[in-house]
Every structure is written in structure tokens, then in C-alpha cells.
Amino acid sequence: MAGNKRKTAFFCQECGFESAKWAGQCPSCKAWNSMVEEPVRISPTKSSGSGGRGLLSAAGAGFSLGAGNRSVRPVPLSSVEDTKETRFSTGLLELDRVLGGGAVAGSLVLVGGDPGIGKSTILLQTSCNMAKAGISVLYISGEESLRQIKLRAARIGSAPDSLRFLCETNLETITDLMMREKPQAVVIDSIQTMYSDEVSSAPGSVSQVRETTAVLLRLAKEIGITFFIVGHVTKEGTVAGPRVLEHMVDTVLYFEGDRYASYRILRGVKNRFGSTNEIGIFEMRREGLVEVSNPSEYMLSGRPLGASGSVVTCSMEGTRPMLTEVQALVVRTSFGYPRRQSTGTDANRVSVLMAVLEKRLGIPLSDYDAYINLAGGIKQTEPALDLGIVLAILSSFQNRAVPDDLIVFGEVGLSGEVRSVSMAENRVQEACKLGFKTCILPASSAAGIKAPKGIRLIPIKGLSQLADYLAGC
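and the corresponding C-alpha cells:
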């Protein structure tokens, strides 16, 4: 039969599951209303002739859709050579920290975030830094023209001539170029704009995103190219396209923060070559993204002194302690149902802590509205914030300010007990470095900690001790 057969199939936008008919719920991931219909094309699978070769084979990647290789044999891990992965610096210390010490050769890094958050900016800065360090970099844009890229590059600094740019969306053309040039690093902006002639659906569809990523993955592993891929996000905040996209790549990074604020947080949610607990903090300026080396000092800038309801606490982001100001406003409600609103932390956790205060300390918070805010726009949910939130609520309720040189951290249980947290000594050292003189912490965490010179530790076991301390302020 001449030509290729065409048909349609239904794909799940969440996991990429393929079905011959539509279903209200995906049989694989159980997501509702996620099945979409897309045209697909079936190519002949005979090994003879050009029709039996797949996209990767046609691109020169050494992959055939014909008969499998019957000579392959499984091997034990003891026979695998134990070599450390090759890394190179991206020129941004905060990005290197999130990646686990630098970019790994032959890896796929997916960068997602809201529109205008700075994804293209940070990758352009990274490309310039790597090119200046002697790394061959190819920047491929499917959304902007070369003139637009030049205008942005002029704002953040001149791009070296060794950094090459290409505006193209056809995957076959891009693959042929990479096979000829063999760059060390490639930036794809963005994966939703790329399309393959082998897939008849529109760019950005489930089939196109999945197949395009598969080709780039093969190139990365066989040739050793490091790919940085920009991914659009949906209104729910996840990368658009099939969920399998995040499973295929080696590293998934998310840009967080309000696009109208100056700060940006780069958080790793998946990393096959490092920890996913590290974050990088940047400040958006006219000249681009600038690294914030001391995030604690940055987050506490502009903190009001002598104000009730303002408490400084400490949370851990990976191995980095970060001091954050917790603000609370407690006012008598005008309605029968009090409001509980929080910004930057879990609202359900705030409601639980207020219930513990009312039950264990007898404070009638059921008649009061409560508004909790983590200053600076940062989002944190670590249990060590509990004690800071509780103290801020008590301070606002009693209209009594806490000392400006006080810091507090610890987890609060439902019985009103203060439980231990990890890496307490690192938190105390960070607080001492920024000039805090007093630290309230769990008694179980204080055991074995040698307090640095200039700071006094106050270990407590329950909320009653915290209330007694506030009463004596």
C-alpha cells in the first residue's frame, strides 16, 4: 500500500497513556477528563528499505526500528566500570548548587515556570557563561527571532561569538545540525514549539512532546550532549504535556516566585545526579538575574522593629539554613465564622496550630480572624516553622512585641509539645551570624548543641513555656 496509514488515537495529557477510544478517566493514572484525540501515523516496520527506519535512524543516531539485536546480554553491576560523572560549571553558583555541583555531560535538564518568570533569561546567561569558559553551546529558539534574542542579550551583557544561535522548530533539521556540529551543550526554548515530521499532530501535543523528548534523550546519551529544555507550565503549575516528560529527563527544575516581585527561587524537584533539597535564589534586575549569596539577610530586609505579630524563624532548604520573618494579624471577627488565611505556608497547618493554642492554652481564637504571612513572598512548609507561627499568633493576640534579636524554631505537636527538628546547630549558627542574641528551640534539639559565643539558647518542652516567656517580655 503506497504511503503511510493514518488514524487517530486518544492520549492522556497527564501520563501519556494511549487508547484506541475515549474514556472519561485514564485507565493508567486515573486522571479525569485528560484524554485528548490526536492523529497518528503508522510507518511500516520492515527492516528493508528506507521505510523501515525510524526517526532516530534517519537522523543518524544509530537507532533502528527493525529486528532487535539478539546478541545483547544482561550484566551484573560488579562488571560495570565505576566512574564519576563528568560535570562542568554553568557559571552561576546558585544553579550549580541546585544541579548538584554543575551540569552533567549527556544529561537532560527541564526548566519549568510561569510565563515571564525568567526561564529564557537564566538559560541565556548560562549559555553566555559556558561559551566564555570554552564550552561549545548552541541556543535553539522556537519562540523568539534572532533580533529579539539579541535585544535581551544586550540587556544582560554581550554574548561571545563562540555562542551560536538558531531559530528553528523542525526536529529533523535540528537533529542533522547537532549530528554535524556535535556541541557540548544545547538549549531548547521551548520543547512545546518543536515538531517532528514523523508525527502528524500539532506542535505541543502529547505525541509531539513525547517523541521529540525521546529523540533528544537518545542524542544526549549516545553523543554526550547536555540539553537544557524550557517547558511551559499549565495553570495548575505543572509542565504542560504528558507527565511522562518529567520521567524521561534527568533533572526537573522549577522557577518559583511572583513575576511582579524581584526575587526568584530555583527549586529542583527531580535530580538523578544530586539532591532535590537544594534551592537557588536570584534577584531579577534590569541586567538579568543576579545571584543572592545570603538569602537570610535578603529575606529579613525591611523587617519592622518593635511590632507585635512579627517573629523571625529558621527553616532548612537542603543544607542551607534560611531565616524568614513570620507575620501574624489576629483581630476579632465580625461574622459567625472566623477567617483563616495564610500566604507562603500551609493554611491547614495554621488552622491546626490555632486549634492547639485554644485547646492547650485556653486562648479563645475561635472568635478571631487570623492572617499569616511569610514576608518576602517565599513559600515554606517545613514543620520547624510551627513554633514561629505560634509565637507570632500569640504576639498579635496579646499585642505584645517580641525582642528584635529573638529567633525561634521547632515543631509543635497536637498535645502542645515542642518536638525536635533536624540540623538545629546549623540554624543556631546562621542566627548568630546575623546578629541574633536569643534562640528559643526544642529542648530535645538543644541537647548536645554548643552555643556559639554571643547567643543564648532557651530550650522549651511545651507551649506553656513559650507563653510564659512572652508574658515576661
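(Above: one complete record from the training split.) The chain has three domains: 1-44, 85-293, 302-471.
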